[in-house]
Amino acid sequence: QVQLVESGGGLVRAGGSLRLSCAASGDTINNYVMAWFRQAPGKERDFVAAISQISGNTKYAEPVKGRFTISKDDAKNTVTLQMNGLKPEDAAVYYCAADKTSASVYYSMYSYRYDYWGQGTQVTVSS
Q1: First to last CA, the chain
Q2: What sign results for the dihedral spanned by CA atoms 101, 60, 91, 85?
Q3: pLDDT by residue (tens digit) across 28-48?
Q4: Which partner for 67 in 85, 105, 107, 114 could form a disulfide, CB atoms 3.0-4.6 Å apart?
Q5: Is 41 left (phi over 0), alpha (psi -120 to 50) or beta?
Q6: Residue 11: beta bridge partners?
Q7: What is the pLDDT of residues 47-84, one digit of tens each?
């Protein structure tokens, strides 16, 4: 069983930056696909970014390409999401997720692929 704890959310002005972290415990995530999803009020949970812990390959949703960067730290068993150039439409609760069976990010945009989820961290962007 893997526990995921997100941190780093908060309030930022449009154009600003935030760095989200996801700390995993209970198992090493070195062989997992790790991802970030987000959910705004009244909307569905959307894929943001994913990284294969094995290959290091990444995948991004179109709205965040060029602004967000997902990375991993095997030694710390963490995954981070660096968010730059934040926009009001980026405001949401951001969730970390872990897929223990996939090796590729090919299907990483589908939430049903994930076995473990964190509790989420709120990101608010003021205009």
Answers
A1: 40
A2: positive
A3: 888 999 999 999 999 999 999
A4: 85
A5: beta
A6: 124
A7: 999 999 888 999 999 999 999 999 999 899 999 999 99
